[in-house]
TrEMBL record:
Pfam families: TP_methylase. CDD domains: RsmI (cd11648). Its EC number is 2.1.1.198. One of its GO terms (biological process) is methylation. This is Ribosomal RNA small subunit methyltransferase I. It catalyses: cytidine(1402) in 16S rRNA + S-adenosyl-L-methionine = 2'-O-methylcytidine(1402) in 16S rRNA + S-adenosyl-L-homocysteine + H(+). It comes from Streptomyces canarius.
Length: 282
């Protein structure tokens, strides 16, 4: 008989949000794999639980090496509990590799549902929640961040992101540039904690607010692209918008992609307009 892999959600702020089954699983698991064993110790103390099983670390730095070891434990019949620092394992946290490896070996995988910063922020944002997509963390480098945002500029579903506080102002400014300054958004800070704050408004306004400095765990929710259809722009305006972006330092390919996304047009339409304008000017 193979064992069972249990993914357990942990509180994102308020310890009282811990699901009752979490304490049971912590007490009874044969192996507890934790993103941070020190934070796990604080969690178990708060819950009044003493794990009976072996406690091991499982974080980004050792995830690849430790996964085979945990799979062997599971194949031997162990009940392995995976917990991360906050929220659900695998959601922008360690866990995916272990789940995939367990599934490949036909090992049972189950979960203890718990708090989620993604769903909590989405619910509090005041933005549409019927359709959404989670984009995780954006790239740290400015160019890569802009490219990633351009990929979803025409996305009509509500977008959810995680972001570090010291990069929040740059990220919001980039969103305002790509999605439009007036696109509605919500910055959710320190969810379920003492200083919880949800700041709502247009992206440009939120970027100015964040420039003053923001602390804490951050989740950003952004309204999807409007469903009004392609923006009616003539070729001259398309070329002008591309030129403005090029003068700001963007490469032509990236500028064309961004203008096309904002206008709701195929990139080829914008490209052809740029080529025609170049030929007309000699």
């Amino acid at each position: 008989m193979t064992g069972t892999l249990v993914l357990a959600g942990t509180p994102i702020g308020d310890i009282a949000d811990a699901p009752p089954r979490l304490a049971e699983e912590l007490a009874g698991a044969d192996v507890v794999a934790a993103e941070d064993t020190r934070r796990l110790r604080r969690l178990t103390q708060a819950l009044g639980v003493t794990p009976k099983g072996r406690v091991v670390s499982y974080f980004e730095g050792n995830e690849s090496a430790r996964t085979p070891e945990l799979v062997q434990e599971l194949l031997g019949g162990a009940r392995v509990l995976l917990v991360t620092d906050a929220g659900m394992p695998s959601v922008s946290d360690p866990g995916y590799r272990l789940v995939a490896a367990a599934v490949e070996q036909d090992i049972r995988v189950t979960a203890v549902p718990g708090p989620s910063a993604v769903l909590t922020a989405l619910a509090l944002s005041g933005l549409p929640v019927d359709r959404f997509c989670f984009e995780g963390f954006l790239p740290r480098k400015a160019g890569e961040r802009l490219s990633r945002l351009r990929e979803v500029a025409g996305e009509r579903r509500t977008l959810v992101y995680f972001e570090a506080p010291h990069r929040l102002d740059d990220t919001l400014a980039a969103m305002a540039e790509v999605f439009g300054a007036d696109r509605r958004a919500a910055v959710c800070r320190e969810l379920t904690k003492t200083y919880e704050e949800v700041r709502r408004g247009p992206l440009a306004e939120l970027a100015r607010w964040a420039a003053e400095g923001v602390r804490g765990e951050i989740t950003v929710v952004v309204e999807g692209a409007p469903e009004t259809g392609p923006e009616e722009l003539d070729a001259e305006e398309l070329v002008r918008r591309v030129r403005v972006r090029e003068e700001a330092g963007e490469r032509r390919k990236e500028a064309i992609a961004a203008v096309a996304a904002q206008a709701g047009l195929p990139k080829r339409v914008v490209f052809d307009a740029v080529v025609a304008a170049k030929r007309a000017t000699g």
